[in-house]
Amino acid sequence: MKTTAELRAGYREFFESKGHEFRPSASLIPRADDRSTLLISAGMQPLMPFFLGFEEPPAPLLTTVQKVFRTPDIDQVGLDGFHLTFFEMLGNFSFGQYFKDGAVELAWEFIFERMKLDLDRIWVSVFAGDPELGLDEDEVAIGAWERIGMPPERIVRLPRADNFWSVGGPGPCGPDSEIFFDWGEDVGCGRDECAPGCECERFLEFWNLVFMEFELHGDGSLTPLPKQNIDTGLGLERGARILQQVDSVYDTDGYQAIMRWLAERSGVAYGESDLATKAHRILADHGRGMTFLAGDGVTPSNEGRGYVMRRVIRRAVQQAGSIGLEPPFLAGLAGVVIEQTAEAYPELAAAQEEIEGVLSAEEDRFSETLARGLTLFEEAAADGEISGEEAFRLHDTYGFPLELTQELARERGLPVDEDGFRERMEEQRTRSRRAGAAEVEVRLSADARSEFVGYEKTEALTAILAYEDLGDGRFQAKLEQSPFYPEGGGQVTDAGFIENEETGARAELVAATHLPDDDQVLTFEGEGFAAGVRVRAVVPWAVRFPTMANHTATHLLHKALQEVLGEHARQAGSAVRPDKLRFDFAHPQAVTAEERAEIERRVNEAVFRNLPVRAYIAPIAEARRLGAMMLFGEKYGDEVRVVDIAGYSLELCGGTHVRATAEIGPFVITSESSVGSGTRRIEAVTSGEAYALLHGRAKEAEELRAELERARREGPRREEKVDVQVEPRSEEAIGGVNVFVGQASGVDAEVLLAESDRIKQERPPAAVVLGASEDGRVHLVANFDRSLEGRLDAVAVIRVAAAEVGGGGGGRPTMARAGGRNPEKLGDALAKAEEALRKALA
Q1: How far apart are alpha carbons 22 and 61 in whole angstroms?
Q2: What 8-state DSSP symbol labels residue 651?
Q3: In 3D, which of 194, 193, 126 has the Cα closest to residue 160?
Q4: Which long-range contacts (CB under 8 A, 24 or more apart) does 822-829 make?
Q5: Contact predicate 776/823, CB 8 Å
Q6: CB distance 279 to 322 below 8 Å
Q7: Residue 823: DSSP 8-state
Q8: What is the predicted pLDDT for the residue at 447?
């Protein structure tokens, strides 16, 4: 048993031979009734209903291989040899059968008879007890380990924070016992007391045995569970690292197969440089994660699981560029992952075409703006920091998640104004809330009832029937007649205003609150109003018309979905705004590219047929007889409003609609994604937004055609390598280190970094400092051999140099970068760097 696949299969076979029933991995998307995490983050999470007693387990003994995704670690991946987002957990579980002795005996047998590990390298930790819980140290577990042969001096007692498991609050809990592999004193901290629990990398925890025997109550007390359960988890990747005796999980066979493919495609090998190592690790981990996410129906979006997917894809695409791996490559990367794991997860091979389609679509989308976004980033970085405004623009215009901007800045040692970014995000949300007119607390009391006239008109001459001053320039009012649609049925509240007919004072609508019996209260921001004042109430046509077009389009989309996917594709939620529509529907898997195209075609066909749209009130019984679509869970009165699109679609709806489908204009689907198990989401645009989108695509296509035509006329050209001329300022051996300080001109920061890598590799062990000027800016890089960490600090050297050119910088002990604005001082900056190197190496 050596390979990752052999460990995975061997674990299953061993526990099946011990009477455990194998349960295949659950989806990475939690069950609909599990809202604890966006994605499965622990091997036992899918089995929680059994541990909580909500459901009977399929067998009293189970074993699983569960895929897991941890979102908190995304930004740490690539920076070290152990952080992962996607990994697999091997587990064995007992529901009221064996307990501590049994779990220890099974683990012992597997470790030494199947994995054939050296006993001298194994340590265990046990619960040390906790006065607050009223528990002493776990003598039963200690006894189980000693009886089976574990040397007492390698049984470590650790506190509650390390060796007591709970669900994070009231519920099942219990002490646990962790199993560690000792990599030896030479990789440790060197302290005499170094043992499991130490923060150094000597001891690797690879298996955890949880003894679930108590229930934790809200008051902090414990009571015994009716049954004593066992929950264990062995990390597959960590186990493979131990079996293969390699330096990190990224050096195990599964990851190395991916990295060989990356090296072949990019020409840059894993370990060739710090930059290459980081990029390979990110691409290998994120490639695995995105493949499995797509296999479970997750597609990129700006919310929830879709946002996690978008982050890992965009981070991977950005890192690929740093090693010269040009798009498209994600489909090929997914293919390598599937080839490595298809035996254990045959569903991936079955869905390979869909997986590759999802990844390629997002890769294409982001690649279009990545280059422009990086240009903006570099311009911002020249100022020595990334402002909140620039970070927001990167996010809003170029699709850079804040985390990606932070990572790019971290590589250059630059600060990011996160507070400024969040202020601008909040300003945007405030504008959105005002456009959507979120409901607020009603403080107005009045018997008068407001009549909604918004179905017929968007402007009304009316009067304020009741008025309540809220302070801070806000007030609530009831209008005799109101054209303002209050949020409901998926349609957002209208934006708009009222004007005092006498004085011309104006107040903007903030919120519209729906009251029983079709009544409403409006909240405004402005002054110069009171009860009895005559006003002109206006919903701008530019707001209402696209909202109506989008709402009618959702009805056409609903019908098209059922025609293409089946009757099960019923509405599960919607949001109709002036700028776009969002429609959620029941469907068990991702919509294919062919299905998406057909849905879009059918909606546009219904638009072009110019079908009349009629709305009328009917008894609920009559609406049912006509076959009107009704949403499950909605409460309807005796009379309902029916929206009839000329026999094509018939639904109950209280929203506003166009008079005929041709008014919708073009309909374009912009995204399709998962929002939960069995639920999909489509976002689309119509009317002017759709025209702008199509016009933009046409313009890009025209530019591409022109570029291709130019390339055809000019004939094939070889891509020229940038010729970097570096003038050495200092090149000598100091204290056994080959120091090289040089100056170039007319090259950017990335080219300078690549040149420093080349020089460093030619002169091991080397300490390289380079500087260059470009368009009035200064770039500096300090690039040291890894073996020099502890002797030299690249960050300290680069900051001394950067101070001379009016800039700042940072990075890691072996690689740091900086920028500045005074190119005439570049020589002084390099002299300072040389001085710092001599002083440190003397």
Answers
A1: 9
A2: E
A3: 126
A4: 822/778, 823/773, 823/776, 823/777, 823/778, 825/778, 826/743, 826/771, 826/772, 826/773, 826/778, 827/729, 827/743, 828/804, 829/771, 829/778, 829/780, 829/801, 829/802, 829/803, 829/804, 829/805
A5: yes
A6: yes
A7: G
A8: 73
* Nearest of 771, 758, 782, 764 to residue 837 by alpha carbon: 782
Rounded to whole angstroms, the Cα distance separating 76 from 407 reads: 10
In the numeric block, which tokens belong to residue 509? 């609508």
Identify which of 359, 307, 358 has the alpha carbon closest to the alpha carbon of residue 593.
358
Query: What pairing do the DSSP bridges indicate for beta strands 481-482 and 451-452?
Result: parallel
The residue type found at 131 is: P
Contacts made by residues 420-427, CB under 8 angstroms, sequence distance 24+: 420/387, 420/388, 420/389, 420/391, 420/392, 421/388, 421/391, 421/392, 421/395, 422/388, 423/388, 424/388, 424/389, 424/392, 425/392, 425/395
- pLDDT reported for residue 119: 96
In angstroms, the CA 802 to CA 12 distance is 57
Most confident of 78-92, 97-111, 520-534, 794-808: 97-111
Stronger pLDDT, 135 or 396, i.e. the higher one: 135
Backbone torsions φ then ψ of 49, nearest 5 degrees: -55, -30
pTM: 0.55
- 267-276: burial string, b at 16+ Cβ within 10 Å, e else: ebbbebbbbb
User: Is pLDDT of 328 > 60?
Assistant: yes
User: What number of other Cβ atoms are within 10 A of residue 3's Cβ?
Assistant: 15
Residue 719 has pLDDT above 70, yes or no: no
As a dihedral over the C-alpha atoms of residue 526, residue 528, residue 532, residue 533, rounded to 10 degrees, the angle is -90
Compute the average pLDDT of residues 753-761: 89
Q: Which amino acid is at 679?
A: T
**Contact of 510 with 675, CB cutoff 8 Å:** no
**pLDDT digit string, tens, across residues 90-109:** 999 999 999 999 999 999 99
Q: Report the C-alpha gap between 365 and 317 in whole angstroms.
A: 11
493 contact partners, CB below 8 Å, separation of at least 6: 436, 437, 438, 484, 485, 486, 487, 509, 511, 512
Residue 573 binned pLDDT confidence (cut-offs 50, 70, 90): confident
Instruction: Please answer whether residues 48 and 62 qualify as being in contact, where contact means their C-beta atoms are separated by less than 8 angstroms.
Output: no
Q: What is the dihedral of CA 805, 807, 810, 816, to 10 degrees?
A: -30
Alpha-carbon dihedral sign for residues 627, 633, 634, 639: positive
pLDDT digits (tens, 9 = 90+) for 608-634: 999 999 999 988 878 878 888 775 445
Write out the DSSP string of 607-636.
Answer: HHTT-BEEEEEEEHHHHHHHT-B--TT---
CA atoms in the 13 A half-sphere facing the CB of 203: 21
Cis geometry, peptide bond prior to residue 328 (ω within 30 degrees of 0): yes
Distances in Å between the Cα of 160 and the Cα atoms of 52, 176, 233 are 22, 9, 18
Q: How far apart are alpha carbons 837 and 730 in whole angstroms? A: 11
Residues 495, 434 contacting (CB under 8 angstroms): yes
Name the 3-class secondary structure at 149: coil
Mean pLDDT, residues 793-818 taken together: 85
Can you name the residues that pair with 467 across neighbouring β-strands? 477
Distances (CA, A) of 811 to 606, 713, 796: 57, 45, 10
Per-residue burial over 153-182, b if 16 or more Cβ lie within 10 Å, else e, is ebbbebebebbbbbeeeeebbbbbbbbbbb
Position of tokens 């900086």?
818
Check residue 755 and give left, alpha or beta (phi > 0: left; psi -120 to 50: alpha).
Answer: alpha
How far is residue 353's CA from residue 338's CA, in Å, rounded to a whole number?
Answer: 11
CA 365 to CA 237: how far, in whole Å? 32
